[in-house]
């Protein structure tokens, strides 16, 4: 399957790194007549009620100091910015929605703008001080870095996490997290630890959460997940030779239940079975596997 089908995969917006490094170029971009601003209120974004497209506004209608603007890049040549704001109730035809409710209705470029803006703005909220020495930091590079007075540089943090579709005899292994409601299942996943390869992280997480070994670990695709700052790295694996498919042991601190599911069960979930949403790479991988088996 094409990696472009992965939700939030992006690659459409020109990130325009040269403009980030020039205060003059940033001001010129902000002043451009076709420049637009994406407002972020907590986790919510504004969309038009008529077609659920992003309610971007011209920069001429926005008052925001330079150090509160994030330069996202260019969409079809037009400068795109993002700012943190408060949700407004006084805009006719505009509704504020969580990305889980809105993003799948947006086109691919709008999804990328939301993904970028959420990730960077959430990072700024927690990066006011250097984690090394506590020194205050200020915004630089059009919102893509922060600097301290002594010359320290801070950059948006992305935490890599692996997520794996495990198969055996035309079935897939799914787990239910202890924090979820009964009946919700998804692929096994976990963060990559320091000094660990992605493949080793897959094998470790599966063994820790399910007590089984996997083989033929193969990378499939990745997805930015700005809730708040993860990069999901999708893998497919099979149960290792000699492993008993019925002998899994769920880690009680993380997993409440493990089950094998057939393609038909994934294609047509029965009552009470909740699977990952279409926005997530887990949902995309499961749907792709269930429909034709090719990842």
Give a quick precis of the structure.
This protein is an alpha+beta fold and 295 residues long.
What structural category characterises the helix and strand content?
A: alpha+beta
The CATH architecture of the largest domain would be Alpha-Beta Complex
Largest sheet: 6 strands, mixed
Detail the poorly predicted runs: none
Number of domains: 2
- End-to-end span in angstroms? 5 Å
CATH C-level name of the largest domain: Alpha Beta
Task: Tell me the helix content.
Answer: 10-25%
The DSSP helix count reads 7
From the structure provided, what is the oligomeric state, counting identical versus distinct chains? single chain
Order of helices and strands: HHEEEEEEHHEEEEEEHEEEHH
Question: What key attributes describe this structure?
Answer:
globular; single chain; 7 helices; four-stranded mixed β-sheet; alpha+beta; 295 residues
Structure commentary:
The radius of gyration is 22 Å and the shape is globular. The chain folds into two domains: 3-154, Nucleoside Triphosphate Pyrophosphohydrolase (Alpha-Beta Complex), CATH 3.90.79.20; 159-292, Nucleoside Triphosphate Pyrophosphohydrolase. The strands form four sheets. Strands 10, 11, 12, 13, 14 and 15 form a six-stranded mixed beta sheet that branches. With 295 residues, it is α+β, with helices and mostly antiparallel strands. It has helices spanning 17-20, 23-31, 99-102, 108-125, 198-210, 263-267, 281-292, and strands at residues 36-40, 45-48, 57-58, 70-75, 78-84, 94-97, 137-140, 145-148, 153-154, 159-168, 171-177, 188-191, 214-225, 230-239, 255-262.
């Amino acid at each position: 399957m094409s990696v472009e089908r992965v939700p939030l995969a992006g690659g459409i917006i020109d990130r325009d790194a040269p403009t980030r490094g020039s205060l003059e170029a940033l001001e010129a971009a902000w002043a451009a007549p076709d420049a637009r601003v994406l407002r972020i209120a907590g986790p919510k974004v504004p969309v038009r009620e008529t077609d659920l497209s992003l309610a971007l506004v011209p920069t001429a209608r926005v008052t925001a100091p330079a150090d509160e603007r994030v330069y996202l890049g260019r969409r079809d040549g037009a400068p795109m910015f993002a700012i943190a704001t408060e949700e407004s109730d006084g805009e006719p035809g505009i509704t504020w929605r969580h990305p889980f409710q809105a993003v799948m209705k947006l086109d691919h470029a709008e999804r990328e703008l939301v993904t970028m803006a959420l990730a960077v703005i959430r990072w700024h909220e927690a990066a006011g001080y250097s984690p090394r020495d506590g020194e205050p930091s200020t915004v630089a590079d059009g919102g893509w870095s922060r600097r301290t007075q002594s010359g320290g540089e801070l950059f948006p943090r992305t935490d890599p996490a692996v997520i794996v579709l495990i198969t055996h005899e035309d079935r897939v292994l799914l787990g239910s997290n202890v924090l979820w409601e009964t009946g919700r299942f998804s692929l096994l996943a976990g963060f990559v630890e320091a000094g660990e390869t992605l493949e080793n992280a897959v094998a470790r997480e599966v063994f820790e959460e399910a007590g089984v070994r996997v083989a033929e670990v193969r990378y499939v695709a990745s997805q930015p997940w700005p809730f708040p700052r993860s990069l999901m790295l999708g893998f497919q694996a099979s149960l290792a030779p000699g492993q008993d498919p019925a002998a899994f042991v769920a880690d009680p601190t993380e997993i409440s239940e493990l089950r094998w599911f057939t393609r038909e069960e994934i294609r047509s979930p029965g009552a009470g079975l909740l699977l990952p949403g279409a926005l997530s790479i887990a949902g995309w991988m499961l749907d792709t596997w269930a429909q034709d088996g090719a990842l």
